Structures are given as C-alpha cells and as structure tokens.
Amino acid sequence: MLELILRVAKVDSTVLLLGESGVGKEGLAKLLHTQSGRAQGPFIKVNCGAIPEPLLESELFGYESGAFTGAKKEGKMGMFELAHNGTLFLDEIGDLPINLQVKLLRVLQEREIVRVGGTKPRAINVRILAATHRDLGAMAQEGRFREDLFFRLNVVPIAIPPLRQRRSDIIPLLYHFRDKFSKKYGIIRDFTPEVVDAFFSFDWPGNVRELENMVERLMVVSPGELIDSSQLPPNFQVRLPEKSGLVVRSLMPLKEAVAELERQLITKAMEEYGSTYKAAEVLGVNQSTVARRVARIRADQA
Q: HTH lysR-type domain: which residues (predicted)?
C-alpha cells in the first residue's frame, strides 16, 4: 500500500481513502501531500461531519460581505481558497449534505468556486483528497450520495485494512508512538516483551487511533521507566498469549514437520482472508510464494 501511496502522490489525481474509523486515513492523506509537488503549499483538512450543515457551505466556499447576518464586513475566504496551490482533505465525505454535493461536483469539474452571497467565480488550484468509513457506492445506489460525485471522487480508491488485518504494522507503530510521546513529554519509557506480545495479539477495534491513545496513556501513568503487563487494562489481560504457540507431541523428520506447518499456516490464512495477497501480507512472504504453495497443496489434495 505504501508503494501505491508514494506513486499516486506524484500526480494530482483525486484520491478516495476508504477504511474503518481510526485506521489512519488522515495520516495517509498528509503523506500524499508531503510526497507531492504541492508539499510546500498548504494542507487543509475539513471534517464534513463535524461542522453544522448551516455553516458548512460558508466554511468550504467562503462568503462575500453582507452575505448573511453576522458576516464579516470584508467577507471571508473558505477552505478551498485557503488550500490554493496545496491540498484539501475532505474527511468523512459521506456526511456531506446532498445540496453541497452539487456544489462540490461543480468545483471538481470547473476548478473554480463561488463564495456564498457572491456571483464572481474564483479559480482555484487545489488537489482534492477525500476519506470515508461509509460505502459510497451503496449510498449512491440508495440515492443518499450523488452517483456522479462518487465517480468524480473515486478516481484512485485506496482501501486501508483495519489494524487487525495488518498485524505486521502493530509493533512498528507501538515504538513510533513511544518515541513520539517521549519527545513530547520528555519522558523515557519502554515495554516488557509481554506487553509487546499483548499489543500484537489485541484486535484494536479502534485501529491506529486506539493504539496511539493506549501508548500515550501507559507512558504518562506508568510510575517507572519499564511498562509491564500489570499496567495493561483488563481487556488486554485476557488476550495475553501463552508462552508457547506450538506444542510438539511426537517426533518426525524436520523437513516434513516444516512442510506440514507451512501447509497448515497457508491453509488457515487462505480460509481466513480468501486472497493470496492478504495471506502473503499476514505471513510476511511474497504473494507469488503463497500462490505456488496453494497450487501445490491443491494438487496434493486432488
């Protein structure tokens, strides 16, 4: 996925980031910006679900003097104008009201905006990134999201798997956030192997955001430099792994044992994920390796 992000960052295509809440969509949006030719320009984020609908239009498109009661005399620039020569990240795009979807579609088509209360089009040079945890395709079929806008946004869709499906990221993220909060708070903390194992085994329903919050919590409340399993919350305690995941009950030639373990791991990964690409990611090998092993297993079973 990182390779795709870096490749897409070099062009101005609209990107739609898809995934559960907390998987890191905003972080990837920032990466797309910093690795692009617009990196020196502004990165502006708008949460379409957090701003009240009556205010959202003026926040996005700005307004002219006297546009409404309480408007500033000199008018105000909107987020599109603030993001000129940079990137505008529209988070939770699935929450955008239908009437504003029409306006956004026009911006994507014409590359210009009209402020609230104004008539003069203003040209903008902005790259649009959008994100949602919703199924926009299904919403379009149900009439809750404009189909033409969905097609405009869905130029390069990037699905971000939940953290439980990319466990290889958990430990690097653990140490990344440890270093982040060490620098932020000026404290030094580390984790026992049992805590690291617990982090790896946990399903993280809140994804990257939950993991980050847990690291911060443990670091600031820990009385000492070493964080051990006794400081983990109860829902982590029940998930602590056993000391050994494999039990040897009888002897057999090592080559046969390795082949049998490989067969079982690949079979289980394919049953759970149904894709050689996902199975390869979980097992930490190339997709071609999994594909060859699957073909061999099926041939042996035939």
A: 268-302
Find out whether 113 and 121 touch, Cβ atoms under 8 Å. Answer: yes
Given CA atoms 246, 249, 252, 253 in this order, what sign does their dihedral have? positive
Cα–Cα distance, 43 to 64 (Å, whole number): 24
Residues 6+ apart with CB under 8 A from 11: none
Q: What is the full per-residue pLDDT of the chain (302 aa) written as tens digits?
A: 778 988 999 999 999 999 999 998 999 999 999 999 999 999 999 999 999 988 999 999 999 887 776 677 778 899 999 999 999 999 999 999 999 999 999 999 999 999 988 889 999 999 999 999 999 999 999 999 999 999 999 999 999 999 988 888 889 999 999 999 999 999 999 999 888 888 988 989 999 999 999 999 999 999 999 999 899 988 775 444 444 456 665 667 888 778 888 888 888 888 877 888 888 888 888 888 888 888 888 888 76
CATH number assigned to the domain comprising residue 12: 3.40.50.300
Task: Annotate 133-194 with DSSP letters as a single string.
Answer: SS-HHHHHHTTSS-HHHHHHHTTEEEE---GGG-GGGHHHHHHHHHHHHHHHHT---EE-HH
The residue among 145, 160, 175 that closes a domain is: 160
For 298, counting Cβ atoms within 10 Å of its Cβ (0-12 exposed, 13-18 middle, 19+ buried), the class is exposed
Domain final residue, candidates 102, 125, 160:
160
